[in-house]
Amino acid sequence: MDRARLAGFLRARREALQPEDVGLPRGRRRRTRGLRREEVALLSDVSVDYYVRLEQERGPHPSEQTLAALARGLRLSSEERDHLFRLGGYLAPQPARRADHINPGMLRVFDGLGDAAAQVLNHVGETLTQTRLAVALHGDETAYSGLARSLHYRWFADPGSRAHYPEEDHTARSRLVAGDLHAAFSRDGAGSRAAEIVDALLARSPEFADIWRTHPVPGPCRATERLLHPQVGALELQCQTLLDPDLSQRLLVYTATPGSESAEKLRLLAVLGHRPWSSDVRADGGFGDSPSVEELVGR
Fold first, then answer.
1. Low-confidence ranges of the chain (pLDDT < 70)
2. How far apart are CA 145 and CA 241, in angstroms?
3. 85-92 contacts: CB < 8 A, separation 24 or more?
4. In Å, what is the CA distance from 22 to each residue of 138, 205, 237?
5. Domains of the chain, earliest start first
6. Among 92, 90, 69, which residue's Cα sits nearest to residue 80?
C-alpha cells in the first residue's frame, strides 16, 4: 500500500468534483475547492474520520470493499478505479467484477433524477443502485447476494418474484428476461458471470431450459409495464431505458401518465416509502393484509 500516493490521489479526485456533479447543493459559503471531505464520506458510506485519516496518510489499510465504495463516491472511471486498487495494495479488479462499478456518466444522470423512480442495472440484471422511490416500488434489489442478485435468476428460480406481475404477463416476460440474458451470454461467453447464471438456471428451471433451446433474442422493449404492489395494488407505468455506450449498464426510469390512478399511487409511494414485501397476493390485486389505496389516502 502506497499511503502517500493513495492520499494524494483521493485528494486530487475530491478537489476535481463539484457539488453539482454528484447532485449536492453548492451553498453560498463554500470555500473548499471541489467537494468537502465529509461529502465524499457520505457519498462513499464511510465515516468522516476514516476518510480524513486516509487523506492524511495515517489511515488503516482499506479493504477492497472500502476502495470500491470510495471509487463510487468519487465517480471514478474504471481505469481510475483500477489505479485506486493498485495504490491500496490490491490487484486491479477483473473485468467481471467491474460489473459492480457504475460508470461515471451513468451515475451523473442518475444523481440528477432526484425523486424519480429510477435504478441502474448491469448487463446481467444486477441492481447497482436505486432511488428511494424505486426501492418503494420494487423493494430493495441491492440487498440480494450470490446468484439472486440477478433479476434474470430470480425470475426463473424464485416463484415469489413473479407475484409482483400479473399472471397473464408471465409468459411474455419469461421470454423477454431469457432473451436479455442470452444477449449478455453471447457477448461475454464461457466463464463469464452471464454463463454462471445460465448454467445454474439450466440445472434448476425446466421453463428456462425450454426457452433457452429456442435461442431467444431480445425482443422489442415493453415501454408499458404492469406491476402489482403490496401497498397500493396494480400500477401501469412507462419504463424508459438509457443504455451506456458499452452496453454494460442501463438506467431504468419509471413514470406514470399524469392524472392517472397510477400517477396517484406513485405519488403515494413517495410518501409511504419502502415496507417489507409479501408474496401473498390477494384476489383484488393487493398483497396479504395490505390496506387499500383508499385506506392509505384517508390516513
1. 92-99, 219-222, 275-299
2. 24
3. 87/1, 87/2, 87/5, 87/6, 87/9, 88/1, 88/6, 88/61, 88/62, 88/64, 89/1, 89/2, 89/61, 90/64
4. 24, 41, 27
5. 3-93 (1.10.260.40), 106-297 (3.30.450.180)
6. 92
Q: What is the three-class DSSP state of 250?
A: strand
Per-residue pLDDT reduced to its tens digit, 191-201: 889 999 999 99
The C-alpha atoms of residue 88 and residue 86 are separated, in whole angstroms, by 5
Q: What is the pTM of this model?
A: 0.65
Q: Compute the distance between CA of residue 244 and CA of residue 222 in angstroms, rounded to an integer.
A: 19
| CA 237 – CA 225 distance, rounded (Å) | 5
What is the reported pLDDT for 120?
Answer: 93
Tell me whether residue 81 is exposed, middle or buried, using C-beta atoms within 10 angstroms of its C-beta: 0 to 12, 13 to 18, 19 or more: buried
Is residue 283 packed enough to be buried (19+ CB in 10 Å), middle (13-18) or exposed (0-12)? exposed
